[in-house]
Specification:
The chain has about 140 residues and is an all-beta fold. It has one domain (about 5-140): Sandwich (Jelly Rolls). The protein has strands at about 5-10, 20-30, 40, 60-65, 75-80, 100-105, 115, 120-125, 135-140. The protein is globular.
Length: about 140
């Protein structure tokens, strides 16, 4: 069975005058034969595409939670824009744990800086060889 990535989106209510907050939860299951995951254009995933336009928001941070079975230790995650730029600045390399969780701030390497979304963004998972490995990825976005 091929790998899959599905998503849901939630707008977090905020008080008037405060920036909006959006939470995207991606559920990824690796291929049952080789553990690979497809690249997933987040803006066009069912459950996200017709709910909220992500353009104009900023990717603030990403949380990664391994499932069962867990992925290969130190697998990789990138969140790329339409130009192929990694909005995590390489901080997702080796960041997918086999247990516990991982938190990555957006922005260039050695910096934490929210990344403006102007077009599509794509989740790319690599380095896993565990068949059907499960991962939950939470993208935290802000309108600030």
């Amino acid at each position: 069975m091929p790998g899959t990535i599905t998503g849901t989106i939630e707008r977090i209510p905020t008080q008037q005058g405060r920036p909006q907050s959006v939470k995207i939860t991606l559920s990824a299951i690796g291929n049952s034969a080789n553990g690979s995951y497809p690249a997933a254009v987040i803006n066009t995933l069912s459950g996200i595409a017709n709910t909220w336009d992500l353009r104009g928001l900023k990717l603030y941070s990403v949380k990664i939670l391994p499932g069962s079975p867990p992925p290969t230790a130190a697998s990789n995650l990138t969140i790329t824009d339409a130009n192929g730029v990694d909005l995590l600045g390489g901080k997702g390399f080796g960041a997918i744990p086999v247990s516990g969780s991982s938190w990555i701030p957006a922005g260039p390497a050695n910096y934490a800086f929210a990344a403006l979304i102007q077009d599509t963004i794509t989740a790319n998972i690599s380095g896993n060889s565990v068949n059907s490995a499960a991962i939950t990825i939470i993208l935290e976005l802000t309108g600030d």
